[in-house]
Amino acid sequence: MKTLLLIAGLLAVAAAQGASLERYKLFLDSTETARAAFEQKVYDRSGKLVQETAGSFVFHRPGRFRWIYDAPADQVIVGDGTRVWIYDRQLNQVTVRKLSAALGSTPAALLSGGRGIESAFALSDAGERDGLEWMEAKPREREAGFELVRMGFGPNGLQAMELTDHFGQTTRLRFKNLVRNPEVNPSEFRFSPPKGADVLGDK
After folding, report:
1. Are 96 and 84 in contact (CB under 8 A)?
2. pLDDT beneath 50, residues of the chain
3. Fewer beta carbons under 10 A from the terminal one: N or C of the chain?
4. Which residues contact 186 (CB under 8 A, 6 or more apart)?
5. pTM value?
6. Which residues fall within 8 angstroms of residue 193, CB to CB, at 6 or more apart?
7. Which residues lie below 8 Å from residue 137, measured CB to CB, with a gap of 6+?
């Protein structure tokens, strides 16, 4: 579930140096809304591809987002500013969590634009790779469920994210057709459980 919360802010750290950190700060300072498509690949510890999916996302900071995962993940994740709704279409099951608990020290917090990122993550510049400038974010909480997140920036801004969990599994996202500051419809950040769906969590 935490991996799928790759959906959707940083208060500038005065001592931080490095191109990727500056790119990240610029991205947050100049981006209130965004929309993009993405491709996601999941690799096991040995580097074997174990899942491949695609989808799209839109966000309106702070705390509002919608991530749609196509099959085989087949999920919809919506943050309405107060809660996060995770809908598994195959199971017809909805899990609800408070936004603060769902984000916290998760990758989604890096895109949400909320406060306190510097207290939740240790941020550092990770150099260049594959033509991108990479920032690395390590959660300070031991219970975060993953070891680190990397964000890759290119000429067109944010182009990639990578998540490595405690089991050595790596999830890689590549963004396509990222549009910054488009007009968004507030209805995109509302969610009503489908009829007959099981609803679990913080209702």
Report:
1. yes
2. 2-17, 105
3. C
4. none
5. 0.80
6. 85, 87, 94, 199
7. 107, 110, 121, 122, 123, 148, 149, 150, 151
